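Recall from the previous chapter that SMILES is a line notation for molecules. Here it describes pyridoxal-5'-phosphate.
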Amino acid sequence: MTAPIALFDVKAQQALIREDLDRRIAAVLDSGRFINGPEVAELEEKLATFAGCAHAVGVSSGTDALQIAMMAEGIGPGDAVFLPAFTYTATAEVPLVLGATPIFVDVEAATFNIDIADLEARIAAVKKDGRLRPRAVVGVDLFGLPANWTAIEAICARDGMFALDDAAQAFGASLGNRRLGCWAHATALSFYPTKTLGAYGDGGALLTNDADRAELYRSLRTHGEGKTRYAVDRTGMNGRLDTLQATILLAKMTLFEGELAQRKRLGAAYDAALSGHVGVQATPAGAENAYGLYTIRLPDAATRARVQAALSEQKIGSGIYYPKPLHHQPAYAAHHAGCIAGGPAPLRVSEALCGQVLSLPMHPYMSEADATRAAAVVIGAL
Ligand SMILES: *Cc1c(COP(=O)(O)O)cnc(C)c1O
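With both inputs in hand, we obtain:
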């Protein structure tokens, strides 16, 4: 009997850095600086250097990173925020929490990322309808693959919109030799444990090249604090990254480049084994996937159920990201229906993908042989 292969593994890495982790955590415990310890600024500098951007601001989660970025732009009632219908719920939740309206955009069947032609059509429809102001585009780098940032940036520049990169699944990915973090006006990262750089709890960061935005983010994450501690300049939130998570992330950063390289090798091994048998996420020219997840597209839900059962029988993990497009979720359906006169156009690709996609084991502590074995089980069950 062969060994199980987990979808994620958040523990294997610990063995490599356990002493360093224990030492760093003990240092924070000894210091008593649990909030705003020097480790937070140290991590921010390392993140900015890694991404090649000017500023990094640590925050409490990827969701809060998105929220702080939108609060800084003053996004709220009357504003249309364009985002893909095929993504994690947090992307759509944030504009609604702020009183803005999410406008769901379809994705491409090949890349699973936002479809630029559909984005243009929906921006035009919102303009024609006249009730909402086109304010922002949130591009999601789904499963680690960069969205078409050249096109999104050009559209945002033309229409005076805010370009926000939800790179929660894609830290480490790059496009045209620039890492994510220096595309868009701002980039949101998540350090949820299973993301490419994961903490031992919640955490996130905002990356930007804009000094004014970075300063606003620092203020907003600390209750809108001004230049002195009890000056409150604006309505903010409690959105800080805590010192323990920052120090854990510093220890993990020492392994990050090597882990990314292994994710890329696994992605290549899967692509080589699976191309021609199932749909694989297509990599556009110039894009480097960080492989937060490795996701295939099967012909239909029945085939997917069969493949998933065969994997499970071999103790190989798999997952469905995502089983429902956001506009079909009860929380969002009403907002979707009401935002454009005559009703919005259908989101056919997003709807189809939800019945077809399957994510296979992807973490840097599995081998290329594991990927090849998982791929063979998939092919055997088709
Ligand atoms: C994980 C994720 C988030 C939210 O990150 P949290 O740190 O869990 O709040 C947002 N967007 C996408 C696309 C994600 O995958």
